[in-house]
Amino acid sequence: MSSRKILITDHPWPELEIEENLLRAAGIEIVDAPNDAEATLIDLAQDVFAIATCWAEVTEPVIRAAKSCKLICRMGIGLDNINLKVASELEILVTNVPDYCVEEVADHTLGLMLALTRNIGFFHQRTKQGEYNLKAGPPMHRLSEQRLGLIGFGHIGREVFQRAKAFGLDVAAHTPSGNDYGTGCPMLSLDEILFTSDILSLHAPLSDATHHLINDSTVNQLKAGVILINTSRGSLIDPAALLRGLQTGKIAGAGLDVFEPEPPDLHDELYRQENVIATPHAAFVSEESVDELRMRVTKQILAVFNGEPPQNIVNQ
Ligand SMILES: NC(=O)C1=CN([C@@H]2O[C@H](COP(=O)(O)OP(=O)(O)OC[C@H]3O[C@@H](n4cnc5c(N)ncnc54)[C@H](O)[C@@H]3O)[C@@H](O)[C@H]2O)C=CC1
Ligand SMILES: O=C(O)C(=O)CO
């Protein structure tokens, strides 16, 4: 390996001590980007053998500038911030960590769902403001009489299914393949899931097919009073259509962990709606998941440095 440098484009953890301990011991230098602007990444990527990225856009110009690059690691599951086509064309391996936070995201999804269906966010705000009563709360429904529709039934969707069953929810799912992975979960068409869900939760990756999957036309198909949960990617929802759906009452509430764009403009009308609860792309986080993620990415980098195949290659 001629280059001994790697570039970390961005990371939400304050220090890189896990990466430094393992990589510096092997003689690898870490370049910690000061910001994730494309021009900065183009400049810093020139002589690195690997790029590790959380949410920064690893664009075609960044990849083409990285002349010695053998590996691009997504420090996470979703691959929507990496130009996979160009990486593959240049025979650069791309990896992700497909299963480090499945339980955390499923728990978070149920958390958002319960906060909305039990009016926990609403009552919390009112109680803190000194209003100790049940006046004017949105209607609440018995969960065991509600249909939860999942769009996407991969690692996370299936984990949400298991939890939701324990709450007595009637769960159904939609994916293009219709594979229920032996769970017995009814698999429906997109139209059926939109028409029949009392709660709709998104667990599909961001792609051309899922971009603005929730738009004015699909909002129209939803059951009146539906609750919408998104812990996948913000751009699965057209934010303007969501706002209109909330304002007309078609959508009774939204629980959002992901946004378009990120970070969102929290002064936007959408986030001022009382029936929107939001968390800052935090669904994946626990001490355990983040440590596991960082260790596994570091091992992928070490493998390639040592001339071995890394785990979880997505483009081979
Ligand atoms: N908020 C957070 O902190 C986190 C968010 N995520 C997001 O969650 C997404 C899902 O993660 P996993 O379940 O692990 O992925 P996965 O790859 O195991 O499952 C994805 C599922 O989406 C389905 N799918 C693909 N295209 C579809 C379409 N057009 N319509 C409906 N379904 C479609 C697939 O068939 C599969 O069932 C990730 O792609 C990522 O964007 C992942 C981790 C953390
Ligand atoms: O792992 C993912 O895809 C996340 O969204 C967290 O970065």
From TrEMBL:
It comes from the Bacteria. Its EC number is 1.1.1.29. Residues 20-315 form the D-isomer specific 2-hydroxyacid dehydrogenase catalytic domain. Gene3D superfamilies: NAD(P)-binding Rossmann-like Domain. Coiled coil: none annotated. PROSITE patterns: D_2_HYDROXYACID_DH_2, D_2_HYDROXYACID_DH_3. One of its GO terms (molecular function) is NAD binding. Residues 110-283 form the D-isomer specific 2-hydroxyacid dehydrogenase NAD-binding domain. It is an enzyme of class 1 (oxidoreductase). Keywords: NAD, Oxidoreductase. InterPro entries: CtBP, D-iso_2-hydroxyacid_DH_PdxB, D-isomer_2_OHA_DH_cat_dom, D-isomer_DH_CS, D-isomer_DH_NAD-bd, NAD(P)-bd_dom_sf. Belongs to the D-isomer specific 2-hydroxyacid dehydrogenase family. This is Glycerate dehydrogenase. It comes from Thalassoglobus polymorphus. The gene is hprA_2.
